[in-house]
Fold:
Amino acid sequence: MKHIILLMILLSFTSVGVGQTQGDILITEYMADPTDVTDSNGEYFELYNTTGSNIDIDGWIIKDDGSDSFDISGTLVIPAYDFIVIGKGDGTYNGRDYEITDSDMYLTNGGDEIVLKEPGGTEICRINYTDGDQFEPASCELNDISNHTDGVTSESDYVAATYALSENDKGSPGSAGNTNGTGGGSDPEPSNHVNNFTASANGSTQIDLSWNDNDGAQPADGFLIKANTTESFSAPSDGTDPNEDFDLSDGSALVKVNHGIESHSFTGLSASTQYYFKIWPYTNSGSSIDFKIDGTVPTDNATTSVAAAIVINEILADPDATNGDANGDGTVDTGDDEFVELYNNSSDGINISGYTIHDGGGERHVFPNGTYIQPHDVIVVFAGGTPTGFDNLDVQTSSSGQLSLNNSGDDVILKDASNAEVTSVTYGSEGGDDQSLVRDPIATGSFVKHTNATGASGAIFSPAKNIDGSYVKTPTVWEGTARSNSWTTSGNWSNGIPDENYRVVIPSSLSTYPTISAAATVNSIVIENGGSLVGQEYLTVNGIATFQREIEGYSVSTSDGWHLLSSPVNNMTIAGSDFEPDAGAGNDDFYAWEESSYTWLNYEVGSNNIDNFENGTGYLVAYENTATREFTGDLNTSDVTVSGLTDQNPSNDSDYGWNLVGNPFSSAIQWDDGNWDLTDFQATAKIRDESGGNYIDITSGGTNIIPVNQGFFVQAINDGVNLTIPSGAQIHDGQGFYKNDKESEGFLKLKVSADANSFYDIQTIRLHEASDESYDRYDSEKFAGNENAPQIYSIDEDLGNLSTHSVHPSSIDDSRIFPLGFEAVDGEYTASMNVNTLGEEYSAVLEDTKADKMIDFSEQETYTFSALEGDDVERFRLHLEKSAIGIPADSELQDTHIYANDHKIYIQTSETLTNGMVSVFNTLGQLIVQDDLNAGYRVIGMESKGAYIVKVRAEEGFSSEKVIIK
Structure:
């Protein structure tokens, strides 16, 4: 009986445990050497109460004839005519009523004793055995309880268990199994069928079953499972205990599984085949077996997957001691130079991430994330060393540091990520002849010694190549010469123009990258970090495209290392890829942005459903370590429309409407180049400039390059709109991040750089005919960047803080002052006017109110200053001044003096001015006084204290001065 019945007995009867005699308890089963689990998790033995009364063995002693011994502590009742199980570890084989620790007792495989004594010292039962694994992988079950009135049994009294505990091990802990003559009568049939009975395919050769035992008033002792490929089942018959048939490869099988296991796996199945399963619970065994056949008997089915057509193609177990440098590292090492070569005999690339290579002794290699075997191509695993000279072919070294292939014969086994066998090879002594064994012909032939293979010409191995030494698939590398971008120019490639028999590599750090303009086909393609490809819509990749991206790790000291990321391949799965954050470690981060709730969504929160890189969507990531990570799959080849972009407050408010999208192509794209429809969006996008530590504005006609793999923000000005990212906007641009293109007219950019690091920020003032004083589509809200980077922005009382402040040219009738916000950590900084395309009639002067300085960038290129965290945020003002028509901005009036005294401003000129005018502005740029000025003195009374800018303009020139009214 099972635990719930045991519990009822404990509650209903008074336990007894003294005055027992020899033979009242017998050892009816022992498992000394489990196969599928370790001894410390699987050893157990079973005690059976031969009497009609409960026996409490609290305080009893279990020992061997040596030093192993432990006391039962606490109530432990063996019900009348029933079993308990005493076992080790995690209770893998269930039914365990008492746990032995490793320090208490071991069941020695080669021979041992199990002895049970009651508290008074009387020996109640014992088993003496000399071979604990005599029936391996089955436990030893007492054949018959009769004739053991002294409680003593020997190994000849036991038979092999037949009930399946796992894939290999058999036993019946807690039930009769093959033990005959147990008293107390038979149990009635089970009360309930199992629930949640599920069949799941596990690769192409295995199906896993699982269920819940669903105990009722009468639990089952075990479960009969029938399996076949016909969906036709006959019900079992009470009193007929069927023989098990574990082999489903012939189309039918029958197994019995003990209560509490709740799972079973069928292996060795055919690929692409549907199998059906039905399960009945039963009690008792032998002629007393009683099945529950009424009610709805649970059934399920599953179909094995298509066989991954991977072939073990070449094996080197015995490198020649003189000529055996198979890995090409210049050193012969009979361990390191061992190798296994796999061949993909299909027309599709196969992802073998997590697959493992085993020999007869265990696991030797785990294929890392992002490992593919390209169609009709090979991958080689060497035992060790530094594989050299393989010309971009796929080679790895064993993750365990060895392959341990025996010269005299061994098994080579490939298993998939779920540990299901994919393919295997067994070789014998022929593997020990100083050369490899290879299939002749490749993939489909039988194994022969390499020197006997067709075309070998005496060669003793050919890892990663054909038997004759030619390439299986020819690698060709784009050389990036300056002559052209043409894909079809032979001189641009290391091994000629690629076709379907080529594996293509486009390397990093080149000045010229390929553009495809007509149909082309390759076997596979790798685009290295910083590489670029335009025209991928014309390209067919028979295998897998790989796009590499180096991502710098997060720096605690600078808080640097956040990246906006997007994928150039179609809907790549994040889990198991290089981009999956290190779950639970807390050192990697991966977020999506939801504008509608103004929330960053964490990948590690399952309810956020961030499963794939969605085409055209951007993500925010940070990783602990710098690494080159790989996007793998099919390159996106067409326009991508991102639907349902939101503006949660659609009122042209600068705080809302920012949606994170991404460049979905294998090259950079040009923003607003005529291919975009931005009717529903601001004209300025934002990317995160990782080197500068800030967000950079992307504007049409200005800085307008969005790099490959770059996520970027766009601001919707209507709710529920779509953005199409056009393939026609693709452009080759080697920058890892944004690029300063030649700016068109109408931009002034003030750059402030930190002298202590590479961080900087840029404030843009733009003159645009379509702009006004509202937050229009040519303005852009300031995004805060890295906490250690300087932040500079335009301050507007109505519009907020702006990184791009766009105004109509007429607003600069004479001059205008733009108050600037500046925030920084303590340090030295340098300001420069790095872009000024406003025209010669405009001049820009930076006012530093803390240092009381006016910096005219037409006279000096840079301005260096100190800043403290406590400085006034509105420290700087940018004076944008417009000269009179026809007067150069640097034509200064001679002998003109401007000064203040006693609440008055004095202007003195020494000559008659033509069309002269004087203007007085406060520090907010507001015009206070404006009047004609011809010659001589002019005095202007000022009622309020403060700083003022006085400007004098005439056809003869221009003069400006800051004065203070005290």
